[in-house]
């Protein structure tokens, strides 16, 4: 460990761990009933525990155990607590751990710490870790891989550093799994430099390590390192110590796909890594792709988790050509396209603007689970093809698959983009048939749907009567509707809520400023801008990107940093002349400021999406589809201009903005000018 890192983790006094060398139970290893010959009564109770089918059944068995002579048997109580944990019933398990068993085995501490972490009780999980150490139980490698995700979930880098200190003291730095979880924690807590340093210092990097450093940048669901310890069956003597684990698993039937089987001292141990990480979580997608290439050069074979991660990176970048290359790699290496990879491919193609290729992947899948159906439904929704999304939803339900909350978000977003309010309300109310309570994203779809349709009062009333507390996303959708319909009165009430919830977001100040500008209230515009300066809130720049020959080219407004800028602006001037001949008139109302019309028109010409489109025309074959990704909502004038450009150059132009996809063909947009 280098000095810089050592200094960063010494945030508290080092703890002293005492290794107990007495019995397997004190080492945290329950006795092996097959070798220690436990009484038949215990064997019978263990068998009943194993066959419990419900929490009620388990509670009845719990009462039965406490009426027997074995009510204080450590192994039996450990298995009882573990049974509660498997049902997600945390409180009884914790009570058995902390109140009933004297000197509980490390296995039970680990499982309880993991149980609280996996159920979102991150602080409680961390507290259990400290209680374990304060009680004199020594943590092991598994302990660290369970508590570090809790530190990451709580975004508590201070607790993470204390655990890191314990890892160093326990000399677990050579354990790849522990270091992978540690990198994951630092990355998710925003300590990018420390995470990168740890990764660079790892003497051996497994596939999971690369997955962690790559995947976190895209915010995947692989955000927790899990080791599934299904049952202890390991016997340790005072003369032999297990090398990497204290237990061996033998309930093979419950293992998930992709589990790893290790043989240690003649016994078997199973584990599986589900990891998240760093670069994509922090928006550095190009670095994530670079690491993937480095991983391949290092000869480390990518697994399904790696490929899902890389596909998500491609989806975030809008890198269709790179995504196709990854798909080709899957085919070439004959990697099985399971439901997780299939869903990632469907999502990648949809988010990169190729909904047809997304559908091809879906149609070719031999098995489709809820995630695959939801991915394709959401894909059609974001492309504004609400009728197709609804048809797929009905087909899915007809095939016996029950929708979940995410599926309904995909359907509702499609109706929102299409202005289909009656259908939207129908499906919003339909959620109750599946015992799904509307969440923030469902309400966001409905508020957006009503707002776009001009029903601002209805949208405002819905926000006031929501069953959950509205967040900035809900209020922001309503404020955007106020801008579209120039409603200052409701806008002022909405922005007050927004600045209370999210005062550092420049977008709210800008939106309200634009609402004032359309109403000619320039004194209020000046007031909003002054407020931004006083609060030191800066507006993030708008950008657009386009992929050409596998490379992503990005542009800002009036960007002249590109090597071919002179040619790009030449293309734009030529297009502007041809557009005017076709009848184009600039929508100068998009420019908010006291400027003459000519100056406003000049400001519109340099918008980032136009620069990206001009570069695409310049750099691709005639007739090739242009796909542009944009971080903000496309403005009215650019929307009009792109319709003209698509007709003039006879190309399909697909634009992904902050809200949805727009498909421009022959002077017409798929959104029907409703966005």
From TrEMBL:
User: Tell me, which GO biological process terms does this entry list?
Assistant: RNA modification
User: What's one Pfam family here?
Assistant: PPR
The record's listing under Gene3D superfamilies reads: Tetratricopeptide repeat domain (1.25.40.10)
Q: Which keywords does the record carry?
A: Repeat
Specify the superkingdom.
Eukaryota
GO MF assignments: RNA binding; zinc ion binding
Q: Which residues form the DYW domain?
A: 583-675
Q: Which InterPro entries match?
A: DYW_dom, E2_motif, E_motif, PPR_At4g14850-like_plant, PPR_rpt, TPR-like_helical_dom_sf
PPR repeats (start-end) = 105-139, 175-209, 338-368, 369-403, 404-438
What NCBIfam families does this protein's entry cite?
PPR
Protein name according to UniProt? DYW domain-containing protein
Source species, please?
Tetracentron sinense
